[in-house]
Amino acid sequence: MPVREDREDHHEDREGRDEDAAVTGAALDAALWRSVAVYRALALVYAAVVITKNSGGYAHPLGAWAVLAVLAVWTGVATLAYRDPARRGWPLLAADLAVAFGCVLATAWVETAHHIAVGRPTLPVSWVAASVLAWAVAGGRRLGVTAALVLGVANLLVHAVAGTSGGMGNTTLNGIVLLFLAGLVVGQVVRLAREAEARLARAVEMEAATRERERLARRIHDSVLQVLAMVQRRGGEAGGEAAELGRLAGEQEAALRAAGGAGPPASGMARAARAHGAALAPGTAAGRDTDLRPLLTGQASTSVTVSTPATPVTLPEHAAGELAAAIAEVMDNVRRHCGDGARAWVLLEDDPAAVTVSVRDEGPGMPPGRLDDAAASGRLGVAQSIRGRVRDLGGTVAIVSAPGEGTEIEMTVPR
């Protein structure tokens, strides 16, 4: 049942990560479309200012106001339509580009031939770039450049209809070039942003998968491997067919250690201390606090001194159990490497920001790089059962050791 529950939890976690990635992608798209909407609204204000300023010189002033009305209405319609992801398809994009094309082309009827020849801007001015931006956001630089090409043709047609194609000034040419640059640059930026978002989502998923693997490895370290080690030992003592069973159990134990990165078997005392934390799934009973002191005083013996404050040191139940399990692993390492009678001291410190537990022993100490070598060879008891547990609680582990000077491990868990 625990394996099945782990698989179900992992499946739920993966579904949750997929949902988070979808939400993140939707948030990016929403931000991009909001930017286009803001640009469209500001460009509408600018177009209104230009039309108002030049209204006295138009050949058909009423036509200019009609074009401004079309710009205003379509600005509202497009802003609302692009908010709905289901509507961001070809019909809306085509309509957006058609409105921009028609408003640009209307300049040939509203403006005088002289003003067109001298380079007065088209009626929508920079408003038409909103369509280019919309196409670039929807399909990247290719669609952005395509929309710019269509509107560039509209600018050329204005001169052709007005009979001034031979006198096209730098203003028109600059406007066409800016449209192409907008479609190209914005489309490229959008593509890079979406690729970066996808890479970030994959990195987050890989990190979550790594944490899940480490959590499962710790559970293997605390349960399955202990049973296999016991079967191997008892089978060797019993002899006969039981010895063969013990040998097979030993092989499976070695295979699981290689796959899960678990360390050597823990003692009965360590298993008992870890049982309190292993019985709780991460995040459960988060609102109920537990006094950490009784979980540590169980480690006291004639050779182990445990010092705690006089007042309760409370943590959420899961955090207290995991921290106690990490300390039990530390004490198990002390007994394994320093002997059963080795002197050790456990100190619990409490402050408003964090809880700190330090364990110091009089053992032989460790040479530099010892833990890295152990991790490289697959012995990850310290890396996962101690550091992994504290890291998952948001805390830190500091290890100070030198040959002949013992070892001190300090674990700090924030509140």
From TrEMBL:
The chain crosses the membrane at residues 37-56, 62-82, 89-110, 116-136, 143-161, 173-193. Pfam families: DUF5931, HATPase_c. It comes from the Bacteria. Residues 323-414 form the Histidine kinase/HSP90-like ATPase domain. Keywords: Kinase, Membrane, Transferase, Transmembrane, Transmembrane helix, Two-component regulatory system. Residues 25-201 form the DUF5931 domain. This is DUF5931 domain-containing protein. The lineage of its organism: Bacteria, Bacillati, Actinomycetota, Actinomycetes, Streptosporangiales.
